[in-house]
Amino acid sequence: MAKEPSREWPAQWLRGSLSLCALRVIADHGPLHGYAITQLLEAAGVGMIGGGTLYPLLGRFERDGLVTTDWVTGENGPAKKVYTITPGGTEQLEADAARWVEFSAITTRVIAGSQVEDRHD
Amino acid sequence: MTKELSVRAPHVDAKWANEFVVALRLRGASGAAIGAALLEVESHLAEQGGDAATAFGDAGEYAAALQLPNTQRWTTSQIARLFMKITLGIVAVTLLLAGLIAVWRGELAQVALISIGVGLLVSVTAFALLTVRGGAALRYVAEHPVIGGILVVTGAAVISGGMLALAIPAPEPFVVAIPPAFAIGGAVVLAAALVAIAIAERRRGAVPDDSITFPPCRPEPAVTPRDTGNEADS
Questions:
Q1: ipTM
Q2: What residues of chain A, 66 to 85, have a C-beta less than 8 Å from chain B?
Q3: A39 touches chain B (CB under 8 A)
């Protein structure tokens, strides 16, 4: 995965999409621990997500049964809590992702509408 | 921060960790959940570096955001036992005071039943509010020090008033005159009963030991995680 330069996006934009982004990263690359998730999100261009934002979200995933967790220890490093997506999590992710693509296409069309029309003119 | 916490979470500054642990305790989180949450902060900071306040924000706000389950809700049976113990304590104190005053004055002990009733009502209400809703009350005091301080002083005044009510002279029909030895002996018996109840509750686990514990870990598998992108999971 090519690392894109770190960018800052408005917090309200991230609020709507972060849970899907995090769940997708866990689905595609898991099992992952929290810090690795922040690194992958940053590398994808989502931006640097603080622990104060990420871990409450991961806790909600766990409570909702979207992920399972396990504690592992590396050879030298500290204990890490790793997250793995569940079948239910995968199902919800695919359904929500499809809806998000549809939603974002609509919002993009609306937001960029005048520019698109200008190009057609 | 206790020694074990600083050993298990060396990258988390002690002040932040203390505030975090206290905030989670006040929210009723279990010792195991607190240990796991703190260890996850440690794990994150060990890799990222920096301080906890920068990465996680205010300790109290982060504790609230985690929404850990409140495992310290009281059952009806626990509340009933608490009320029984408070009642025993109030009656024991009343008997002891009346007995000691009677010995000093050389007369029969005047046990005012109405004063016991008033004392019970005020004390049970105040103690129940503080004990059952203690987490919320203490959290409010911690978050609003000025208003909280005024409320604490007012609460203390109410409790003191309840205790003083024990000494208010009662109408004659509500006063029982008994030999001082009976009053003091009764107080001793009730105090012994309270101690026996406390020991019995502890022995049968009614007062659980909920100290902070850390999750057991297994060795990290040789191949993890899948396709994380080496640049990201280093």
A1: 0.84
A2: 70-75, 77-82
A3: yes
